[in-house]
Design goal:
Length: about 110
């Protein structure tokens, strides 16, 4: 169901079921985060110089410490001189991302403002 790993330039992402897996399957795979917590704990022991975070429904993101989505949004805000008045929680972002999937595919890009 698509590749399970992706080099995104600023991070490497592991997707347990593959990037193209159906959302329903992804939501069933690790609903309580237990599987990814185990994987994350192992990775943190082996590569402590990196930041390991759970993302999406089945993915684990590996970045340089301090380089994460919040860092990226901050850089985007500063570069484009934007004012972002709401700080989104990760659960709000997941809901927002799920609802935006089709629109994102049509447009190719969207921003969270």
């Amino acid at each position: 169901m698509g590749r399970g790993d992706e080099d995104r330039g600023s991070q490497v992402t592991f997707s347990a079921l593959g990037q193209q897996a159906p959302l329903a399957e992804k939501e069933k795979w690790d609903p309580d985060f237990a599987k990814r917590k185990k994987i994350t704990a192992i990775l943190e022991k082996h590569i402590p110089e990196f930041s390991i975070r759970m993302g999406g429904a089945t993915s684990i993101d590996v970045t340089k410490s301090g380089i994460d989505k919040a860092y990226g949004i901050g850089k985007l805000r500063d570069t484009l001189h934007l004012f972002i008045e709401k700080k989104w929680s990760s659960s709000e972002m997941r809901c927002f991302q799920a609802g935006m999937t089709t629109r994102r595919k049509r447009r190719g890009l969207f921003l969270f403002l």
